[in-house]
Design a protein that fits this description.
Arc Repressor Mutant, subunit A, 4 helices, alpha+beta, 129 residues, globular, 50% helix
Length: 129
């Protein structure tokens, strides 16, 4: 398991594109594509659907933060399904590494992204719980 996690962690994301409400990228030798659904009150800031090619992102994030979350959810969905990884543990960890990689490429500070995501999460959690 450690070897697989290490390999997936080191695997770069390539050719990331956002067009017509979709995110597409190459990762682990595969072309991945999901429709991005912007939700007004997304409790978890981002999530994915097991049955369809869609990721859901809260609308209170700015464009780059939304894109980073869409990349995270796309990677998390893929590694969860392809390698049967726990979406809340190993898959989330790998997706977070790739999300950071995406933000670094776009010169966005990880900490400021996490602060924004945390604020949105807390706001939605208060509404829900």
């Amino acid at each position: 398991m450690k070897e697989l996690i290490g390999r997936l962690e080191d695997e770069p994301i390539k050719k990331v594109k956002f067009t017509r409400g979709t995110v597409s990228l190459e990762y682990d030798g595969k072309k991945l594509k999901n429709r991005i659904v912007i939700e007004e009150h997304e409790t978890f800031v981002g999530r994915w659907d097991i049955d369809i090619n869609a990721v859901y992102v809260d609308n209170d994030l700015d464009e780059l933060d939304m894109q980073a979350v869409a990349v995270h959810e796309t990677i998390e969905k893929y590694v969860s399904q392809k390698y049967d990884l726990d979406p809340y543990k190993e898959a989330h960890y790998i997706a977070t590494v790739k999300e950071r990689e995406f933000l670094k490429r776009h010169r966005k500070d990880w900490k400021s992204h996490q602060i924004k995501v945390g604020k949105v999460w807390r706001k939605e959690a208060k509404r829900t719980y």
